[in-house]
Write a structure and sequence with these properties.
The structure holds two protein chains of two kinds. Chain A is an alpha+beta fold. In chain A, 42% of the residues lie in helices and 18% in strands. Chain A contains six helices and three strands. In chain A, a hairpin with a 4-residue loop joins strand 1 and strand 2. Chain B folds into two domains: 127 residues, Aspartate Aminotransferase, domain 1 (Alpha-Beta Complex), CATH 3.90.1150; 248 residues, Aspartate Aminotransferase, domain 2 (3-Layer(aba) Sandwich). Chain B has a seven-stranded mixed sheet, with helices on both faces. Chain B has a four-stranded antiparallel sheet with strand order 9-10-13-12, covered by helices on one side. A two-stranded parallel ribbon of chain B has the order 1-11. In chain B, helix 3 runs parallel beside helix 8. Classes of the chains: A alpha+beta, B alpha/beta.
Chain lengths: 142, 410
């Protein structure tokens, strides 16, 4: 399969790789939201962490990804796009924009869906920690 | 060393220039139809085909009349399996209980799909499950035998992991029970010593392009004596190949197939040792540089030139992307929409995360030590790059067993 230049660039030079600490450390941190989506048996696991400032803006974002090149590129791109946005603005990012930006072929659309899910899951985690989310609002990743 | 390097010889091989040399006159000079019995062009073509039949038979310890030319191993498998099942069926078409067939879950699709078709046509099929080492033993076959077992089809060596089944013992069990025994030997013949008499084989498929010969030509060995095996033809027409496979013969291809067989026979011993040394260097080199590197399949009973290695916490397709100068295969089928990892690796009971993380590297006649060194270095770099990105590797390093986590799968 031929990858777009942008996918190859994100693969070779992924942006914002890392985390704000081990999973046990960030669990209690109220300024950090964590989203882990996907499953090893499906060949994709994305982990997105966001750090939110007092002003409600996403100050920093870090990702890790087990998956194909398109999955890595989708999560790398997601971190670039959400940095500096408010959590509600970040929720507006749709997978179709990721598909367009990276020229993903149809068989790779699920990678962009996973990236969108990771943003939503990380923000839900942040909101829950800060009492901004009703448990009834919580939507499980599908 | 030229890049990219080729380590996908289990998919296909470079045609040996000596083979091409042997084929060329049969395109432009000796271009007759080998079935033309009444002129010199036909006789010359037939002589080329006969010589190839002898070369092919010699490689496997058979007689030349026991070789049937086909378009490749897929066709040979179809002819052997459907042809034998239909010939030895216990009830006519349209009825159930037509007979029992034994095969294995990690066979090639060219064996599994004909078996599935026969199942729909009233035959019973048992799909044996090898252990985690990927080996089908004679005991497994014996335990599955029934009074109405008419056919057993078990591959000699597996195309994805290179494991070698105990074909002589399986053949002996089949003979004891009076069942016809077919083996798909596509990955075996030409690489390893083969003797259909000693090894108790009744039907055997192999192809030209896996043994440094041309594509589009294959052979089926069909036993003629003790016992004589009969087949229902699958392609009807002019009655070529003693009625078992009609169609004008691909004379240049067959001549190339024969030449390829002869070269394999002559060079097998030294080539086996050379390739085994290279493969061990490759496997040990990779295992020595990284943790959680698993060679799949039985530790010793494997082909000398093929290895299937899982690199934990790294996804196969992204690994392939990182080693673009190495032509090889991934065990992950993530390139299709199914997201299914290899059914062969899953058949061994390998965890999905490892099945998604494997490479099949297969060496060949032109593989060099320099290429192996290059492969070790570039695979190591790509795995390190991807593990730095892998949330699963972090969890592993934190001492968390990723198989115990409840993932939100899609």
């Amino acid at each position: 399969m031929a990858y777009s230049e942008k996918v190859i660039d994100h693969y070779q030079n992924p942006r914002n790789v890392g985390s704000f600490g081990a999973s046990s450390d960030v669990k209690e941190r109220k300024d950090v939201g964590v989203g882990i989506v996907g499953a090893p048996e499906c060949g994709d696991v994305m982990q997105l962490q966001i750090r939110v400032g007092d002003d409600g803006l996403i100050e920093d974002a870090k990702f890790k990804c087990f998956g194909c090149g398109s999955a890595i590129a989708s999560s790398s791109l997601a971190t670039e796009w959400i940095k500096g946005k408010s959590v509600d603005e970040a929720l507006e990012i749709k997978n179709t924009r990721i598909v367009e930006e990276l020229s993903l072929p149809p068989v790779k659309i699920h990678c962009s869906v996973l990236a969108e899910d990771s943003i939503r899951t990380a923000i839900e985690d942040y909101k829950r920690k800060n009492g901004e989310l009703d448990e009834s609002d919580h939507t499980h990743a599908h | 060393m030229n890049l990219p390097i080729y380590m996908d010889n289990a998919s296909t091989t470079r045609t040996d220039p000596r083979v091409v040399e042997a084929m060329l006159p049969f395109f432009t000079e000796t271009y007759g139809n080998s079935a033309s019995r009444n002129h010199a062009f036909g006789w010359a073509a037939e002589a080329g085909v006969d010589r190839a039949r002898e070369q092919a038979a010699s490689l496997i310890g058979a007689g030349p009349k026991e070789i049937v030319w086909t378009s490749g191993a897929t066709e040979s498998n179809n002819l052997a399996i459907k042809g034998a099942a239909q010939m030895y069926a216990k009830a006519p078409m349209g009825e159930q209980g037509r007979g029992h067939i034994i095969t294995c879950i990690i066979e090639h699709k060219a064996v599994l799909d004909p078996c599935k078709r026969l199942e729909r046509e009233g035959f019973d099929v048992t799909y044996l499950e090898p252990g985690s080492d990927g080996i089908v033993t004679a005991d497994l076959v014996r335990a599955a035998m029934r009074d109405d077992t008419i056919l057993v089809t078990i591959m000699w060596a597996n195309n994805e992991i290179g494991t070698i089944n105990d074909i002589p013992s399986i053949g002996a069990v089949c003979r004891e029970h009076g069942a016809v025994f077919h083996t798909d030997a596509t990955q075996w013949v030409g690489k390893m010593p083969t003797d259909v008499e000693r090894d108790n084989v009744d039907l055997m498929s192999w192809s030209g392009h896996k043994i440094y010969g041309p594509g589009g030509v294959g052979a089926l060995y069909v036993r003629r004596r003790r016992p004589r095996v009969r087949l229902q033809a699958q392609i009807d027409g002019g009655g070529h190949e003693r009625g078992m496979r009609s169609g004008t013969l691909n004379v240049p291809g067959i001549v190339g197939f024969g030449a390829a067989c002869e070269i394999c026979e002559n060079e097998m011993e030294s080539e086996r040792e050379r390739l085994l040394a290279l493969r061990l260097k490759l496997e040990n080199g990779l295992k020595g540089l990284m943790d959680v590197v698993e060679v799949n399949g039985h530790a010793e009973r494997r082909l000398p030139h093929l290895t299937n290695i899982s690199f934990g916490f790294v996804e196969g397709e992204s690994l392939m992307m990182g080693i673009k100068d190495i032509a090889c295969s991934s065990g992950s089928a993530c390139t299709s929409a199914s997201l299914e990892p290899s059914y062969v690796l899953k058949g061994l009971g390998l965890g999905d995360e490892l099945a998604h993380s494997s490479l099949r590297l297969s060496l060949g006649r032109w593989s060099t030590e320099e290429e192996v060194d290059f492969a070790i270095k570039s695979i190591h770099e790509a795995v390190e790059h991807l593990r730095a990105l892998s949330p699963l590797y972090d969890l592993h390093n934190e001492g968390i067993d990723i198989t115990k986590i409840e993932w939100q799968s899609h």
